[in-house]
Write a structure and sequence with these properties.
The protein is of the alpha/beta class. Helix content is about 35%, strand content about 20%. The protein has 2 domains: about 140 residues, 3-Layer(aba) Sandwich (Rossmann fold), CATH 3.40.50; about 280 residues, Dihydrodipicolinate Reductase, domain 2 (2-Layer Sandwich). The longest helix has 20 residues. The protein is globular, with a radius of gyration of 24 Å. The protein binds 6-O-phosphono-beta-D-glucopyranose (BG6).
Length: about 475
């Protein structure tokens, strides 16, 4: 997407520079950007962390992060040393107001404007806003970046948004959902609106149903404390899956800019039918993994509370109440410790009314378009053909017409979502970031579903680790005559 002209960020302050997100995702993303010559030589990156480290000790940590999180085949000493030139370090206790004096002193000579990236617990946001404010280092051209989840429910997200808006304008706030940085996700807009073949068929007349699956093979591991307070609906559906749903179903934006795209996404979220107590039984399944395939059950993981009833899996039948999507079910499914990591959107087109081929072929049903985010980043359209040969009675074949982005675009590797998002922060392009309304509407829908589930008598279901989820999830989709697309 073409960024509109905006002032470029000259200095970047990374709060939580020694945390998991920085080490696993952000520092490697900076590395790839350096490799691809995307970073201005003068860009300065100030890591902020609690540990007392010298600049060179911090650079050692950055180096370690790269060795662990960038595969050996891409590591290059020259690129590492160029990247390290951008970095500096400042030790801060974010709860101590005096720390911000030190930070401000560090930044004094740095070029402006500055972007502040909060890769830290939301519990510390207010301390940071107040600290930056009291040192008067919030300027009208600086940017602030916060990660999903923005809050825990509607109320807490409103609280965070209000605190953000007390110090920054909406145009300075970059709310990250890293799914939006993924190349295939960005390609959804191009796929839909640059290909008339699809744009003309993208409605309830031609589409039977749509599935969105984000299955993960990982369990909760050392994140039990965080995750148990959230659950899979808040952790994955509230932002990642609903954002995918928005991009798949929104109306064409007037322009490719942040305002147009965001306002179309907001309309989708407004049109999402709330899941109420009556609808729970037929539209909602939540489950938790038990042990299986040599993996521990959720309640046996390190630090677990054995009585926890937090869901690690949900599948939902959603409805969008608008002209384009009337009657089309959207099945959302996501879980931890499933059989494999697989993220995909499957569009099932309707089949033709009058069928002229043999009965066996009819079971092949309509075409499917599979948009895969993981394991491959690819798009594949299943089409029917006659098998080659003289047998006139053989059943039709269903084969993929596929686009694998690594192969077709001769890429070295698919960039992580963070590369693209970091560049957008530097360049001032908000199209791939969430606005306040999107976040709050998404929470409202999730809060409703959770509330309805709590009030209903529906139990928490169970599934063994390493499987596709509970049988109730199969039943949810089958009761509508549909099925999950499994590779
Ligand atoms: C994060 C969730 O936002 O996304 C994690 O908090 C989840 O629980 C992760 O594992 C999945 O991201 P990806 O890019 O690996 O699909």
């Amino acid at each position: 997407m073409k960024p509109e002209a905006a002032i470029k960020i000259k200095s970047f302050v990374l709060f939580g520079a020694l945390g998991d997100l920085s080490i696993r995702k952000l520092i490697p993303a900076w590395y790839y950007l350096e490799r691809d010559h995307m970073l201005d030589d003068g860009l300065q990156i100030l890591g902020v962390g609690r540990q007392e480290l010298t600049k060179s000790q911090f650079k050692e940590k950055v180096n370690d992060a790269l060795s662990t999180n960038v595969s050996d085949e891409y590591l290059d000493d020259d690129i590492i040393s160029k990247l390290l030139n951008h970095f500096d370090y400042c030790c801060c206790d974010l709860q101590n107001p005096n720390s911000y004096k030190v930070l401000s002193l560090n930044l004094k000579e740095w070029s402006k404007p500055v972007a502040y990236y909060l890769a830290i617990s939301p519990k510390l946001f207010e301390n940071v806003f107040n600290g930056l404010n009291s040192e008067q280092i919030i300027t009208s051209s600086c940017r602030i970046v916060v990660e999903k989840p923005i809050g825990y429910d509607l109320e807490s997200s409103k609280d965070i948004n209000a605190k953000l808006l007390k110090h920054f304008n909406e145009s300075q706030i970059y709310r990250i959902d890293h799914y939006l940085g993924k190349e295939t996700v960005q390609n959804l807009i191009t796929l839909r609106f640059a290909n008339s073949l699809f744009s003309s068929q993208w409605n309830s007349k031609s589409i039977d149903y749509i599935e969105i699956t984000a299955a993960e093979s990982v369990g909760i591991e050392d994140r039990w404390g965080y995750f148990d307070g959230m659950g899979q609906l808040r952790d994955m559906v509230q932002s990642h899956l609903l954002q995918l749903l928005c991009l798949i179903t929104m109306e064409p934006p007037n322009r490719l800019n942040d305002q147009s795209i965001r306002s179309e996404k907001v309309k989708v979220l407004e049109a999402l039918k709330p899941i109420d107590e009556e609808g729970i039984e037929s539209n909602f399944v939540s489950a938790q993994y038990t042990n299986g395939k040599n993996k521990l059950a959720y309640i046996e993981e390190e630090g677990a509370d054995v009585t926890s009833d937090t869901e690690t899996f949900v599948s939902i039948k959603a409805e969008i109440q608008n002209w384009r999507w009337k009657g089309v079910p959207f099945y959302l499914r996501t879980g931890k410790r499933m059989v494999s990591k697989m993220t995909q959107i499957v569009i099932h087109f309707k089949s033709d009314g009058h069928y002229i081929f043999d009965q066996d072929s009819e079971s092949l049903k309509g075409n499917t378009l599979i948009i895969s985010l993981h394991p491959s980043e690819s798009i594949s359209l299943q089409v029917f053909t006659k098998p080659h040969g003289v047998d006139k009675h053989s059943t039709l074949r269903s084969d993929p017409m596929s686009l694998d982005f690594i192969k077709t675009q001769k890429l070295l590797n698919i960039p992580s979502g963070y590369q693209s998002l970091l560049m957008d922060i530097l360049n001032g392009n908000q199209s791939l970031f969430l606005c306040k309304e999107e976040v709050e509407l998404a929470w409202q829908w999730c809060d409703n579903a959770l509330e309805a589930h709590k009030k209903s008598n529906q139990e928490l279901y169970f599934y063994p680790a390493g499987t596709n989820g509970p049988k109730e999830s199969e039943q949810l989709i089958q009761s509508n005559g549909h099925e999950w697309h499994e590779e």
